[in-house]
Design a protein that fits this description.
With 305 residues, this protein is mostly helical. 70% of the residues lie in helices and 0% in strands. It has ten helices and no strands.
């Protein structure tokens, strides 16, 4: 997730263009991008702190997901219990995105969408975009490592919880051991994951929603979809690998390779299918019949730093 834009003009106060309604979303994203450029240039340490907070939220809530699944998978539970545990766990995990949004923390996957829109509109170069993404991912990993270290010193993940985590690690790295078909499966799951996440951000930033409860429901729902269906999130999976790794579980080389595939898939899902797609979709073409070359908010041709 990204920090909310610092501009005094919020999505709810902007008029929505009837021909290009998505332009409000693009304009809001560009405002958020300006804040990120400032943060990663002049306030890098504070930007990292925001990214670390997102990693903490993901680590704690992903652990909660596995704890709930484990609680519904003990011996003697009814046949429907494991499915119910996955539902409840996925719903609970969704609140991590809500906390990230409302605390202005920084999550890698939605930043993929933001820098893609900014690059299309010439508001940022790809080198600066990679800096933003790299700093964000580093902060997310540090936050996840803090959670992993704390859990290693506790009994929170003992027993069935750790067993569920180990099974998940084996499943995620197992895709790579299944050859090209497995890699393709992992890649597609990563695409769909970040498509879901950024559909949620699209709805939150589209200028039509002013009710916080509705925004929360949307964010929880999109995370529920990817968590329940087993889509792959680069930050969540990295944190899982860190937690399991500190318990002596997993193959680091396979895990790094898996995260690499997931990162690429997440970028396609969020950066291309949502970011670039909506940037192009809502870029108003110049009107040859009037010679009107005026650029409206969110139209291509803005500055690049």
């Amino acid at each position: 997730m990204n920090a909310q834009p610092s501009s005094p003009t919020t999505p709810s106060t902007r008029s929505v263009d009837p021909l290009f309604p998505g332009r409000t979303f693009v304009s809001t994203v560009l405002d958020a991008l300006d804040s990120k450029k400032t943060m990663t240039g002049e306030l890098t340490s504070k930007y990292l702190q925001r990214a670390i907070m997102a990693g903490l939220f993901v680590g704690i809530f992903f652990t909660t997901y596995f704890a709930i699944v484990a609680a519904f998978s003990t011996a003697g539970t009814p046949a429907w219990a494991p499915a119910a545990g996955r539902v409840l766990g996925a719903v609970t995990f969704g609140w991590a995105l809500v906390l990230i949004f409302y605390t202005n923390s920084e999550l890698l996957t939605s930043n993929m969408m933001i820098v893609s829109i900014g690059a299309y509109h010439h508001r940022i170069g790809w080198a600066r975009s990679l800096r933003i993404l790299a700093l964000c991912f580093a902060g997310n990993l540090i936050g996840g490592l803090v959670v992993a270290a704390l859990l290693r010193c506790s009994t929170v993940t003992d027993g069935m919880v750790l067993e569920q985590m180990v099974a998940a690690v084996q499943l995620k790295t197992g895709y790579l051991q299944a050859g090209a078909a497995g890699v393709a499966d992992l890649f597609v799951r990563a695409i769909l994951c970040n498509f879901c996440i950024n559909v949620g951000m699209l709805m939150v930033y589209n200028g039509k929603l002013t009710n916080d409860f509705t925004k929360c429901v949307i964010m929880v729902t999109v995370v529920f979809v990817f968590a329940f269906l087993g889509f792959e999130h680069s930050v969540a999976d990295s944190v899982l690998f860190l937690i399991a790794g500190l318990h002596g579980v997993g193959d680091p080389m396979l895990e790094v390779a898996a995260v690499g595939v997931i990162l690429l898939g997440n970028f396609v899902g969020g950066g291309v299918l949502i970011g670039l797609n909506f940037a192009v979709m809502n870029a108003e073409p110049h009107r040859a019949d009037t010679g009107d070359q005026e650029e409206r908010p969110g139209s291509r041709g803005d500055r690049m730093d």
